[in-house]
Specification:
Distance between the termini: 45 Å
CATH architecture of the largest domain: Orthogonal Bundle
Structural class: mainly alpha
Strand order of the largest sheet: 1-3-2
Radius of gyration: 26 Å
Mean pLDDT: 85
Order of helices and strands: EHHEEHHHHHHH
Number of strands: 3
CATH class of the largest domain: Mainly Alpha
Low-confidence stretches: 1-19
Helix content: 55-70%
Largest sheet: 3 strands, antiparallel
Strand content: under 5%
CATH topology of the largest domain: Globin-like
Number of domains: 2
Number of helices: 9
């Protein structure tokens, strides 16, 4: 439920409640979306404040029940609404990747690929960036966009295995991309002076999408490697 239950002091059970401030077991359970037996166990374990009437009925303070509800997450801002449409961000991302590759000592995974293979990975990298940025910007079809990015991640993993890149090297290549992607998202947040809540929401959504892709990449690499060993 996203909330840490605290132990309730013993004295909280003995105070007589004002009726309008307290909830019956069934009503409190409905608000929380849990079974009444679950809420009853929490109360018996001292995890939520409760008053037991002389007739043996449990009453829960409305404030204590409200505190157990998950906090509403900040709404993730759309890139276009920030004046940073996906195609513009994608162009900056490609520039960042090219610049950082040129300025760094050649990574091991990069050195192992010939020009034809590098071009193949570059093209998929650009497509990956476009899909992920469209996912962050989109109002509809977001799940389809993420599914397409995951599919591309699996394809990336398969190709890496066929090029004899280890799973570690394939992951390093993706992490290189991931760092530049997140750096570009951070640049947008700073440029548009987003507040902490909206910046956090944007980063969390980006992390969620990138995590899904890297899991798919590892899965694709593993399957291709298993087939090669048979």
């Amino acid at each position: 439920m996203g909330h840490t239950l605290g132990v309730v002091p013993e004295g909280s059970r003995s105070e007589r409640p004002a009726a309008r401030e307290w909830l019956a077991l069934g009503e409190a359970a409905r608000i929380l979306g849990v079974d009444p037996d679950t809420l009853r166990r929490w109360a018996d374990a001292g995890k939520v404040e409760v008053f037991t009437t002389p007739g043996g009925h449990r009453r829960f303070p409305r404030a204590a029940i409200a505190a157990l509800l998950p906090r509403r997450r900040a709404r993730r801002p759309r890139l276009s609404s920030l004046g940073a449409p996906p195609d513009q961000v994608a162009a900056e991302l490609r520039r960042r990747v090219r610049s950082d590759l040129a300025g760094l000592e050649e990574p091991d995974w990069h050195a192992r690929l010939d020009q034809r293979s590098l071009q193949w990975f570059r093209e998929r990298g650009r497509r990956m960036g476009d899909l992920l940025l469209a996912y962050l910007d989109g109002r509809g079809a977001r799940e389809q966009l993420l599914a397409a990015a995951e599919s591309l991640g699996r394809e990336y993993g398969v190709a890496a295995a066929k090029q004899r890149l280890s799973i570690g090297q394939a992951t390093q290549a993706f992490l290189f991309f991931r760092a530049r992607f997140m750096g570009e998202i951070g640049r947008v947040a700073r440029l548009r002076a987003l507040d902490a809540e909206r910046t956090t929401a944007l980063f969390e959504e980006s992390d969620h999408a990138l995590d899904a892709v890297i899991v798919a990449l590892v899965e694709g690499h593993r399957r291709a490697s298993d087939r090669a060993r048979r």
